């Protein structure tokens, strides 16, 4: 039974926490750019007052409820007129240029080109109230310099570098296409459609669009056209524990978000971007969610090799089996210890020559012998300690680099630091689990 004293203490702590959070919750609804945005949206038929823009102490800018939302009730319903899609782009002054271009460009590139052009037009743009509230820069890895990429967990470094290369390739391949817009501008397109401008537009589309399927256009490439920029609605932040139903309603012709559990008054309204771990959130959205239940620490092949016995004559064969059976990726530690896949890979690597014939049953989950199980736990601890050391070094380096960094670099360093801190927390839990297993 709870002691009354404890309950009173908890209540007091809760009150203090709420007061602290409220102090760092600043309404943005009276700022000129949001007043203009709301006015512009009202002209397009969006009038709801139940969500207001707020700067939150933990997640940054987002939307707060001004009234309670019941389970299954609407969070927001945005009329089609407010959405910016490839249809908007193809119907615009850029449409004929895009339609003429061969081979057809992707829906993503069409949207990016339009955003770049509209940002350049400034107040003369019909979309300026929306463009003005878009972030000026992002914390996705495509913005990271090499020294920041080096501070990511090893398994993420490769993906981050690939993202940068993929972006670079898109830019190089699009230069001629951008040049085709020259008649629309007085300035040379090289000065408008720069790599920086495309990076900004690319991140705007990738981090802010909602999923909306469109009919395939003959004027665009075969890549799926699933994007819609949804002004105001795109101020909703992600919470892994929230459930929503979202989609374009063909009857009401609105993009609707409904809450599954409901939400209290004066709370941040969240949506769910999907069951992503922190690596995916960082790669695709440029942030990490603290306490993310989907997060794990990945053991890359280089780290796994630390517990391999170079003198093991079957080592090459073991690694081949692991690779052929898809056991060399997605090896992870979670809050509850090493994953089944990681332990299975370690069990196969642990086999002595005379046990090697049982490799098939090991891959199906069978344990071999007590001493091999101990070897696996010991190896998992070794991997856990190695990843922890790597984290500690990265965190030290990050705190050095943060000193004297400019604002956008500081934001990037802080995101990487949050990721490392989250991983440290997972590894600490994993170590306790492994030590308990070792003691059994
Ligand atoms: C669709 S926008 C949401 C609104 C955004 N915060 C803004 O100021 O415009 C998506 C971006 O919001 C940020 N974000 C979303 N959820 C977050 C969270 N739980 N914590 C921190 N940042 C978050 C990330 O930068 C992400 O790329």
Automatic annotation (TrEMBL):
Residue segments, region Disordered: 1-22
Positions of the SET domain: 44-274
Keywords tagged on the record: Methyltransferase, S-adenosyl-L-methionine, Transferase
Basic residues bias spans: 8-19
Highest taxon, organism lineage: Eukaryota
MF annotations from Gene Ontology: protein-lysine N-methyltransferase activity
Keyword field contains Methyltransferase: yes
One of the protein's GO biological processes: methylation
Pfam entry (one): Rubis-subs-bind
Protein's UniProt keywords contain Ubl conjugation: no
Protein name according to UniProt: SET domain-containing protein
Organism: Onychostoma macrolepis
